[in-house]
Amino acid sequence: MKKIAFVSLVAMCMTFAIAMLLTTQSAIGSKKPISAGPGIALPDSIQKMVKRACMDCHADDGNFMAKGKVNFSVWDKYDAEKQAGKAKAICKVLTKGSMPQKKWCTNNPKDVPTQAEKDMVCRWANGLQK
Predict the structure, then answer these.
(1) DSSP, res 89
(2) CA proximity to 99, closest of 90, 107, 108
(3) What is the pLDDT of residues 18-69, one digit of tens each?
(4) CA pair distance 41, 60, nearest whole angstrom
(5) Whole-angstrom distance, CA of residue 2 vs CA of residue 79
(6) Whether the predicted pLDDT of 106 surpasses 90
(7) 97 — alpha (psi -120 to 50), left (phi > 0) or beta?
(8) In the chain, where are the structural domains located?
(9) Which residues, 6+ apart, have CB-to-CB distance to 81 below 8 Å?
């Protein structure tokens, strides 16, 4: 039984290592043009809501999976095209009600974004050029 577990662990590690190598190679060989530079900082009105309602998970010290989707700690390092795409995705999840997650909302009711804040984020997101 121990041998099977060990072999399974080794196989998983090798699969992960190969996946990382392939991902790096495809990014290096990408035909996509390099951005002219970083994007812009979040507007103060958006940043206030993000700090209160998003950064518990979507920041450097937040949830691994959440910051993989969007990491507000490095927002200004995203190029303008990436910012625009992520902003539109943020609008979409806020509108659907899938973010912030229900459990977080239950535990932090005073920090849940209002409908006016959600509308503000969507107006801002739709104004960004992609």
Answers:
(1) H
(2) 90
(3) 555 444 333 343 344 444 457 788 999 999 999 999 999 999 998 889 988 9
(4) 16
(5) 48
(6) yes
(7) left
(8) 1-30, 39-130
(9) 35, 130
